[in-house]
C-alpha cells in the first residue's frame, strides 16, 4: 500500500498539514506539496477537433506521482467553503489526462483509497459539508473508495492542537495505516 | 443597478455563457472573462508579521471591476462537482484584499446582489447542489444577497439549447433585470 | 405509464398541491393524500428473531397503490427543512415491506420514475437542498430514477401563483407527461 | 446546565442510544424516548381564521420537558437518509406551539445548546450529511447553538462498539459535560 499525501495549502506547516503528519507518524509515504509545482488552469479542449494540447508546466510529474500510489490523502484547508485553488487546479486537469493515451487514467484511479483532511473556521463541521460532498461525488465518479475524512476546527497557526477529537482521529488512522 | 458577469469557464461560447447571454439580452452590463486575466493562487500570509505582499498579476483590475458593480452574475461550468479553478482563484484572493486598506472590501461587497449560472452533466440537478451550497455560504459570509441560480443540463457545445427550463428561467431573469 | 401523486401535506389545496395540479392538467393519474390514511411509525424489528409483525393501519393499501404505478410524484411542503412527517412515515415503513415476502418490493420499485414537488419559505432554493439530496439518496438506494424536482417559493395559501418559474416548470412537465 | 436526551429511535438499546449513553456516563440528565409518547402529525392551521386547535395526544408534556432543559441531545438513527418519523413528528409540531401563547417558545428555545447523535449504514459519513445540514438549518432558524454531532457507522445491534472514533468522541463530550 503506497501512500501519498497531496497538500493543497498555500502555507507551510498549516493546521491541515499538522493533522496529516500525526496520522502518518512512523509511516512511509510520499508528500506532494502542490504549491511547489506550476499547474496551469485547464483549457477545455474536449469538444475541439484537435483535442487537448501539451501544457508547459509541472502537471505530468504531479499526476505520475498520484497514479503511482494506492492510498491518497487529500489535505486542504477550507478556503471560501471549498478546497483551495491549488487543489482544484489539480483536479480540473484530470479532464485532460483522462483523454491522454499515454496515461491509463481511468484504470489506474479506479479502486484507489481516498482520505480527506481539511480544517477551517466559521463552524466548519457544518459549513465544510458541501466540500465533503464534492469529494464524495469526485471519488464516486472515478471509482475511488472514500475511506474517511476529518474536519478540523482551526484557523490560526497551531490552533489545531486544541481540537482533540481531530487528533484522536489521526491516531486512529495511524493505527489503521500501520496494519 | 450596474451589472457584471464573471465568466469562469476556460472555453469561449460555452453552455453557461450561452445561458447568461439570454438573461442579459438587451441589457447593459460589463463582462469579465477570468481566463483572459492572469490570477495567481493566493499565498496565505494572514498570520505572518509582514502580512500579504503585492502580487504581480491582473487581480487588482479584476477586483476593482467587481467592486464597482451592484449585481454580479457568477457564471461557471461544473468542473469536478465544483466551480472552475479560474473562478476559485478569484474567490481565494478575497482573503488578501479583505485585509488591504486600499480597498474597502467588506463595506463594498455587503449588499451586492448575486446570481449563479452553472451547467454540467452527470445528473447536475443533484450533483451540482454542493456547489450551490458553497456559493450560499460565500454570499452569507460577506453579506451578499443570493438572488437566484440556474443549473443547466449540458456538456457538449450547444447542448444547453435543449434545456428549455433553464432558458425559461433566463427569460424571467431578463424580465426582472429590465425593471 | 401509470402516474401517481403522493401528497404529504397536512393541508388541502396547499401550494405544493397547486403546483402538481398544473403539471397534471389533462393527464390521467391517481392521487394519494397521505393525511387521509392512518400510517403508524415503524417499529424496527429487522434484527429480532420474529421479524416484523403486522400493523393495524392503512399502510398496505397505500403501498399497494404506490407499487402499482410507474411514475411517482412526491409532493411535500418543506416543514423544518425536510419532508413532512406524513411523508416520512410513508418512507420509514419501506424498511418493513422490503422484508415482507407478500410484496416484491425491490423488484417493483426498481426503475420507477420519481419527481419531487416541494414548496417553502426561508430562502427555499438553498435551505431546501438537503431535502433534495435526501430524496436523491433514497431514489439511488432503491434504484428509482430521479427525473426532476421543483422548489417553489411560497408559504401563505396561494402565494405559489406568483412563482412564475415554478409554474413554467410545471407546464414543461405537463408537456413531457403528455407524450 | 440541565441536560435532556431526545431519543427518536423505534428500537430500545439501539446503536445511537448506546453512543449517547457513553457521552452521559455519570452525568445527571433526563431522557425522553419519543416512541413512548403519542404524537400526532401536525395539521397546518397557520393560515386559517381559527388557528390551531388542541390535539389530544402527549405532545405538550414532551414539549414542556424540552423547553425546561438547556442542553439538548437529539438522538436518531438514520432512516432513509433522514431523521426518524418519531423525531420529525416532534419537530413538525413546533409550528403549532410557536404560535401558542401558553408557551414562550421562541424565547425559551433561543440559546439552547444542541448536539446530534446519529448512526447508520450505507456510507453514513457522506450520505448522512444532508441530515446534519437539516439540523443545522433548524437550529439556525430558532437560534439554538449547534455544538457538535457524531455520525456512527452501525446498523446491526451492537455494531457501534466497533466504531472507535465515535466512541472517542463520546468520551470527549463526557469530559465537556462534566465541566
UniProtKB/TrEMBL annotation, chains A, B, C, D:
Protein name as catalogued: Flavodoxin family protein
PANTHER family attached to this UniProt entry: NAD(P)H-DEPENDENT FMN-CONTAINING OXIDOREDUCTASE YWQN-RELATED
A Pfam family of this chain: Flavodoxin_2
Domain Flavodoxin-like fold: 1-163
Origin species: Halobacillus litoralis
UniProt keyword list: Flavoprotein, FMN
Domain of life the protein comes from: Bacteria
Keyword Kinase: no
Amino acid at each position: 500500500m503506497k501512500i501519498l499525501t497531496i497538500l493543497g495549502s498555500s502555507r507551510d506547516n498549516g493546521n491541515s498539514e499538522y493533522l496529516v503528519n500525526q496520522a502518518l507518524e512512523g509511516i512511509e509515504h510520499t508528500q506532494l506539496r502542490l504549491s511547489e509545482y506550476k499547474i496551469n488552469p485547464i483549457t477545455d479542449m474536449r469538444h475541439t477537433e484537435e483535442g487537448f494540447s501539451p501544457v508547459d508546466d509541472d502537471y505530468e510529474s504531479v499526476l505520475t506521482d498520484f497514479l503511482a500510489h494506492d492510498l491518497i490523502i487529500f489535505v486542504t484547508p477550507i478556503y471560501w467553503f471549498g478546497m483551495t485553488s491549488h487543489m482544484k487546479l489539480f483536479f480540473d486537469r484530470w479532464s485532460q489526462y483522462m483523454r491522454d493515451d499515454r496515461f491509463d487514467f481511468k484504470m489506474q484511479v479506479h479502486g484507489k483509497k481516498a482520505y480527506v483532511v481539511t480544517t477551517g473556521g466559521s463552524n466548519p463541521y457544518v459549513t465544510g459539508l458541501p466540500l465533503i460532498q464534492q469529494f464524495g461525488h469526485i471519488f464516486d465518479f472515478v471509482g475511488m473508495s472514500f475511506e474517511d475524512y476529518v474536519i478540523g476546527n482551526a484557523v490560526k497557526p497551531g490552533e489545531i492542537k486544541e481540537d482533540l477529537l481531530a487528533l484522536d482521529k489521526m491516531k486512529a488512522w495511524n493505527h489503521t495505516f500501520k496494519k
